[in-house]
UniProtKB/TrEMBL annotation:
<feature type="domain" description="Major facilitator superfamily (MFS) profile">
    <location>
        <begin position="19"/>
        <end position="394"/>
    </location>
</feature>
<feature type="transmembrane region" description="Helical">
    <location>
        <begin position="300"/>
        <end position="322"/>
    </location>
</feature>
<dbReference type="InterPro" id="IPR011701">
    <property type="entry name" value="MFS"/>
</dbReference>
<keyword id="KW-1133">Transmembrane helix</keyword>
<dbReference type="InterPro" id="IPR047200">
    <property type="entry name" value="MFS_YcaD-like"/>
</dbReference>
<feature type="transmembrane region" description="Helical">
    <location>
        <begin position="109"/>
        <end position="130"/>
    </location>
</feature>
<feature type="transmembrane region" description="Helical">
    <location>
        <begin position="142"/>
        <end position="164"/>
    </location>
</feature>
<feature type="transmembrane region" description="Helical">
    <location>
        <begin position="20"/>
        <end position="44"/>
    </location>
</feature>
<protein>
    <submittedName>
        <fullName>Transporter, MFS superfamily</fullName>
    </submittedName>
</protein>
<feature type="transmembrane region" description="Helical">
    <location>
        <begin position="247"/>
        <end position="265"/>
    </location>
</feature>
<feature type="transmembrane region" description="Helical">
    <location>
        <begin position="170"/>
        <end position="189"/>
    </location>
</feature>
<keyword id="KW-0472">Membrane</keyword>
<feature type="transmembrane region" description="Helical">
    <location>
        <begin position="82"/>
        <end position="103"/>
    </location>
</feature>
<keyword id="KW-0813">Transport</keyword>
<feature type="transmembrane region" description="Helical">
    <location>
        <begin position="368"/>
        <end position="389"/>
    </location>
</feature>
<dbReference type="Pfam" id="PF07690">
    <property type="entry name" value="MFS_1"/>
</dbReference>
<feature type="transmembrane region" description="Helical">
    <location>
        <begin position="210"/>
        <end position="235"/>
    </location>
</feature>
């Protein structure tokens, strides 16, 4: 039997594949479950005559559940172990996924959402912690690039499964629960190699949000721009004169950029002396791309080219930010910081659509671009301040 890894890791020279596969399996189930579940539940509620306002309120439980579960995850893993906590989260998320089929009372879907997305958040946090602990320092960006690529594939596969399975009967719910349960196999196999959180975090949870602000702010921007962009770009594009199919293809192009740039950017971060400079560069490119969007509405092709690279920059904030986090912390501090990382992402997914939608209401269609540019601009200011104040801190 392999000895469980201590959260305070010794230097690792090679990729430890059982641990990588366990973490990747976990995040794959997260991506597919969210990608399949969100449209599936929304369509079913629409068919049952639920108002859009209530559908939105029920959907918002996902972000709120993530914000509530993230601070608790490290405590649970410290008490029960990383692998057992992940296995319990898999059972809870799979059971609640099936619960949406068997429980038809709309109001009971609110606690179901909380259980489902809370359990998914636990998997999210602990898979990132596991992979950060076991990644070789000189290959951390590459490993996290693989991790981010698989997460992107999971998000993309969920809607594809929904388009194939539809919303009728138990089948889509059973497939979703089955995908989640499959992740338990590699986690169980690698359970004796899972990291150990052998002490409680040394700080209050919210202090971890500000302990590595370059990383947590990056994932906040990622969550805000990704969720807000996916939700409201079709409206921006159709108002600008593109057809619905053209708008959908542009979103697909952005998703391709999100997918193909993860590993190259992760490898680039491995070669960088200071990952903060890469994060700053990505946000500058994102800022410029956002400002150019209103000028490109006459050309679908130019819009597609910009969105390809723009999607890569947005996804790079996640991969490089997570890599920066892993290079700065270890042990229980890293576990708590990973929870703060996911918490910041969840806050971004709630704030992004609200801010971008309000900007479009107040300033017109181009408010979509101005709001996204504002998110990137805030990060550019933060990163410049951090580099000026801490020029020698990696």
């Amino acid at each position: 039997m392999s000895k469980p890894l201590s959260g305070k890791r010794a230097p690792v020279d090679e990729i430890h594949w059982p641990s990588l596969i366990a973490a990747v399996a976990s995040i794959t189930s997260v991506g597919i479950a969210i990608g399949l579940g969100l449209p599936l539940l929304s369509i079913i509620m629409e068919k049952r005559g639920i108002s859009p306002t209530l559908i939105g309120l029920n959907s918002a439980m996902a972000g709120l559940a993530s914000m509530a579960a993230a601070p608790l995850t490290t405590k649970l893993a410290h008490r029960h172990g990383v692998a057992p906590t992940m296995l319990l989260a898999i059972v809870c998320s799979a059971a609640s996924a099936l619960g949406f089929f068997y429980i038809t009372n709309f109001w009971l879907w609110f606690p179901l959402r909380i259980v489902f997305h809370g359990a998914i958040t636990v998997l999210f946090v602990l898979s990132e912690f596991w992979i950060n602990v076991t990644a070789p320092p000189n290959k951390r960006g590459f490993v996290l690039g693989i991790y981010g690529t698989v997460l992107s594939l999971g998000f993309a596969s969920g809607p594809l499964l929904f388009s194939i399975l539809g919303s009728e009967g138990i089948l889509p719910f059973a497939v979703g629960a089955g995908v989640i349960l499959l992740a338990a196999i590699p986690i169980y196999i690698a359970r004796n190699e899972s990291p150990v959180i052998d002490e409680k975090p040394g700080r209050h949870f919210m202090r971890y949000v500000f302990l590595v602000p370059t990383a947590t702010a990056a994932v906040f921007i990622f969550g805000a721009v990704e969720s807000g962009g996916l939700s409201l770009f079709p409206i921006f594009a159709t108002r600008a004169g593109f057809t619905e199919s053209q708008a959908a293809l542009l979103l697909t192009v952005m998703g391709v950029g999100n997918f193909i740039f993860q590993i190259p950017l992760g490898m680039l971060s491995d070669m960088a002396r200071d990952r903060r400079t890469i994060l700053s560069a990505l946000t500058v490119i994102g800022l410029i791309g956002a400002l150019f969007l209103p000028m490109l509405i006459e050309s679908w092709f130019l819009m597609a080219v910009v969105l390809l690279f723009w999607g890569g920059c947005v996804s790079g904030l996640y991969t490089v930010g997570l890599s920066h986090l892993g290079s700065r912390l270890q042990g229980s501090d890293l576990a708590a910081a990973n929870a703060a990382f996911v918490f910041s992402y969840a806050v971004g997914t709630v704030a992004g659509p609200q801010a971008i939608g309000a900007a479009m209401d107040v300033t017109g269609n181009n408010g979509f671009a101005w709001a996204i540019a504002a998110f990137f601009g805030l990060y550019v200011v933060l990163s410049i301040v951090r580099i000026v104040l801490n020029p020698k801190r990696p």
